[in-house]
């Protein structure tokens, strides 16, 4: 007796989707890595621990990444992209509306929101602290995570120079530190609260200076 014509289609629907399975495993690994580093710190986080928490084999992790640092970097970048999308923003972009002050205020406000996000705060603090004592890790995260963001500030300030909104003799690489360094120091060292009002003030002081107007 011939099989019904619908049988092949039904069979195809039961075939495992390798792409979907891989994405599910990748997401589980991201969550496990960020969760572990937040709970026990970078030094005590291991590939074996990540695999166990994610419910995958250790070989699955090594198929996609060469080390726990690579796993954490990718997980951290993915988390940042998710936070930007949820805020309705394009990740790793500083807008250029023609008003450099407004653009810098917007991106720093978004940074504050991300730094205060519990999903982001614990793992980022753990990795930042480890980067201070672990030179190799520090260099990797500066090169792959921090440096691309800093280049966006440089590009935006150069555009402002071309528009006559920033002095032509200003070094954008030094100028960006007026915005990002105080915020980073206050956040890392708990020297004061971080807020939209605080970063708006940073932009005002940096662009307008301290001398009487």
Automatic annotation (TrEMBL):
PROSITE patterns: HTH_TETR_2. InterPro entries: Homeodomain-like_sf (IPR009057), HTH-type_TetR-like_transc_reg (IPR050109), HTH_TetR (IPR001647), Tet_transcr_reg_TetR-rel_C_sf (IPR036271), TetR_C (IPR011075). Residues 1-17 have a biased composition (Low complexity). Keywords: DNA-binding, Transcription, Transcription regulation. Residues 1-24 are annotated as: Disordered. Residues 46-65 bind DNA. Gene3D superfamilies: Homeodomain-like (1.10.10.60), Tetracycline Repressor, domain 2 (1.10.357.10). Residues 23-83 form the HTH tetR-type domain. This is TetR/AcrR family transcriptional regulator. It comes from Streptomyces bullii. The lineage of its organism: Bacteria, Bacillati, Actinomycetota, Actinomycetes, Kitasatosporales.
